Amino acid sequence: MVVSKCLEFAACRYNGQTIRAPLVSALAKFAELRAVCPEVEIGLGMPRDPIRIVSIGGDDRLIQPTTGRDVTDAIRAFGGTYLSQLGAVDGFILKGRSPSCGLKDVKRYATGARATPVGTGPGLFGLAVLDAFPDAAIEDEGRLTNFRLRHHWLTKLFLWAAWRDVERRRAMGALVRFHADIGLLLMAYHPAELRVLGRVVANAQRRPIGAALTDYRDGLARALARPARPTSHINVLRHGMGCFTKHLSAAERAHFLDALAEYQAGRLALHAPLAVLRSWVARFDETSLATQRYFSPYPRELLDLRGS
Questions:
Q1: In the predicted model, is pLDDT for residue 128 greater than 90?
Q2: 222 Cβ contact partners less than 8 Å away, ≥ 6 residues apart
Q3: Residue 259 and residue 272 in contact, taking contact as beta carbons nearer than 8 Å
Q4: Which candidate, 31, 29, 43, places its Cα nearest to that of 71?
Q5: What percent of the chain has pLDDT over 90?
Q6: pTM of the model
Q7: Mean pLDDT along residues 123-127
Q8: Which of 138, 47, 157 is nearest to 93 (CA)?
Q9: Same domain, 215 and 227
Q10: For the chain, is the Cβ count within 10 Å smaller at the N or the C terminus?
Q11: In this structure, are 236 and 170 located in the same domain?
Q12: Domain residues for 210?
């Protein structure tokens, strides 16, 4: 995965600082991190005078107001070359609101001088990332302080990593196992797409494995496009409880349903009822649920229930 170099890696922010990003440090144990700073790569120094996006005749230009230097073409050229040479990438964490790396909410100005912003949008390198890797797990470090967004981003990141293994194997058996293991995740994210992907895996028409993998990947990308809604998680958790109804006392069922109500009201984190369901899987040796990635979509060491 690719990370803005100013996030924990180097003091390359325009003001010569390094930005703290604990998630980046935590991910180093589980992912290959590639750090990049487009502004440094095109020759801007450390520290340096700030740059800003100036909208001129409908074109967003990247200008250094103090010098009048226009680095638009240099940033675009670097982005095109760098991203085309990356190969397989599961995700990005980029510096939020940066004129180069920002993914949204980057201010646009009518002039290079001090002025009121006239709009917002992605930075120039950030836009190139979104265009080149539309399905990858892509976020800025600021938004990843929100638990719901972080949980979605981590789920997506590690699911794409697992999917690459299926693509390498190029076997229907691997695809069938993958689909079985993410059934609850798909139910939470996109029930309609779960049904579509089920038909792809069934492969009633005996299509070649390459065609099945392409169709499945496209459907998986659609399913993961947005975070799962709380109501969808509740449906999945209720479905999971149904597997244990005959084993549970009335008090246990009532306790679990109360937890779901608390989660829906925003007074309880998702992982509280999820932990109860996971304990039932172990207690009753429910093999049909034991391999579900829904319970552990990413390494437990990355779980942080705090949110902004």
A1: yes
A2: 190, 193
A3: yes
A4: 43
A5: 95
A6: 0.96
A7: 98
A8: 138
A9: yes
A10: C
A11: yes
A12: 147-308
